[in-house]
Design goal:
With 456 residues, the protein is mainly alpha-helical. It is 61% helix and 5% strand. The structure holds arginine (ARG).
């Protein structure tokens, strides 16, 4: 079968080369965008007089039939036609005859593929933004139920200070908020139209790039035709924002794995989000968060892959750029699936408040508060830190927590201790006392919830 570009060739393409240079196996995901771009292009060719209204009408009709067949799964793509652009063009010619060959007037596959990628990523970035919001909502809903749930806060994965569970969860709300802002920002660059840049230098036909851009829902037109066909920053930005988001999702996933372990038992994931073991009957494994944690790797990999493909490419289009697609599709699909699982997993998990409470009452995470207590009695913080360190050591040696020590025992370490020390040490009080702006006190967390709600 002859190639759409076969005129200059005297030999058939080597079969392996044909297979390896073809992108149709993966770029068929751009079929809808490709047809959409072609419809806008053909309309414009008619308004600017390059095609007659009748010709444009016939071509549009043909493209719509191709679209219809695509939806019905009736199109058989072939590697002989290399990529989605030439496959669609071939289908069109099969449908309406040689007139279909006029569609490619005043454009090149180079501006065409860039346009398809912009359209695809614009749509999916918008979808992902919605999924991020749904996840934020899930985090927010759970947080609002747990302002008064207290658990140990950690640094170095060592118990540090008691915190409100809502405060802990809301941290993820803010991470997702920044992720969303990064995606919104990247939309500005995704919303530029490369169509009409031609192969690299523009075209001799009297095209109207602004008309096409408007019809396709783009906000502006790339001002430089070479930049239009050689730019892939918009994909890199999406992949960078996605990498950071997956890192956040992975941190949350890691906490869910830890919290659902026998050692912690702070939460239990719903059965519908876990799987069992083929040999150990007692097991209920947190596969979903484990996979979310692992999927981060491929998202980072896709970013590094494309950065490496692009480095050192001379202007303008190079075949190397065909390698931009699989990583982009994979990042989109990984992110969409991850977010789609994350929100319901959060919504359905059981929070074991009592275990959290028990954990804070069986540790020394209120030590900072006695140090602060002595400071209010006039002891310099450094000295107070030293005294409390000794008290903690005494507690560990004698199997006692800070609330268990008698007044007599306290007095051995400092005369400044009085009965009021016990009220300072209760976990609820320890949390309530951290009322600086953005702190974990119940009252500050309620303020934070209000702010978060407003942002959604
Ligand atoms: N399949 C190609 C790609 O994905 C389309 C552009 C091909 N352009 C060319 N001059 N070979 O990048």
């Amino acid at each position: 079968m002859s190639k759409l570009w076969g005129g200059r060739f005297t030999k058939d393409t080597n079969k392996l080369v044909e297979k390896e240079t073809a992108s149709i196996s993966f770029d068929q995901k751009l079929a809808n965008e490709d047809i959409k771009g072609s419809l806008a292009h053909v309309n414009m060719l008619a308004t600017t007089g390059t095609l007659t209204k009748e010709e444009a009408g016939e071509i549009s009709k043909g493209l719509k039939i191709v679209q219809q067949k695509l939806e019905e799964g009736k199109l058989a793509f072939s590697i002989e036609h290399e990529d989605i652009h030439m496959n669609i063009e071939k289908f069109l010619i099969d449908e309406i005859g040689p007139l279909g060959g006029k569609l490619h007037t005043g454009r090149s596959r180079n501006d065409q593929v860039a346009t398809d990628m912009h359209l695809y990523l614009k749509k999916h970035t918008e979808d992902i933004i919605e999924l991020v919001e749904a996840t934020q909502q899930a985090v927010l809903n759970l947080s609002s139920e747990h302002v008064d749930t207290i658990l140990p806060g950690y640094t170095h994965l060592q118990r540090a200070q008691p915190i409100s569970f809502a405060h802990h969860l809301l941290t993820y709300f803010w991470m997702l908020q920044r992720d969303k802002e990064r995606l919104f920002d990247s939309l500005k660059r995704v919303s530029g139209s490369p169509l009409g840049a031609g192969a690299l230098a523009g075209t001799t036909f009297p095209i109207d790039r602004h008309q096409v851009a408007k019809e396709l829902g783009f906000d502006y037109v790339y001002p430089n035709s070479m930049d239009a066909v050689s730019d892939r920053d918009f994909i890199l930005e999406f992949m960078s924002a996605s990498s950071i988001m997956m890192m956040h999702i992975s941190r949350l996933a890691e906490e869910l794995v830890i919290w659902s372990s026998q050692e912690f038992q702070f939460i239990e994931l719903d059965d519908s989000f876990c799987t069992g073991s083929s040999i150990m009957p007692q097991k209920k494994n947190p596969d979903v968060p484990e996979l979310l944690r692992a999927k981060t790797g491929r998202v980072y990999g896709n970013l590094m892959g494309l950065l490496t493909v692009l480095k050192g490419l001379p202007l303008a289009y190079n075949k190397d750029m065909q390698e931009d697609k699989e990583g982009m599709f994979d990042t989109v699909e990984t992110l969409e699936a991850s977010l789609m699982m994350l929100a319901p997993m959060i919504e359905t998990m059981t929070v074991k408040k009592d275990n959290m409470k028990k954990a804070v009452s069986e540790d020394y995470s209120n030590a900072t508060d006695i140090a602060d207590y002595l400071v209010t009695k006039g002891v310099p913080f450094r000295q107070s830190h030293e005294i409390i360190g000794k008290i903690v050591l005494y507690g560990i040696d004698n199997g006692k927590f800070l609330l268990d020590l008698t007044m007599e025992e306290y007095k051995k370490f400092s005369d400044h201790f009085e009965e009021d020390i016990y009220s300072v040490l209760a976990p609820e009080q320890v949390v309530a006392n951290r009322h600086s702006y953005g702190g974990t006190s119940q009252q500050q967390v309620r303020e934070q919830l209000k702010l978060a709600e407003k942002m959604l």
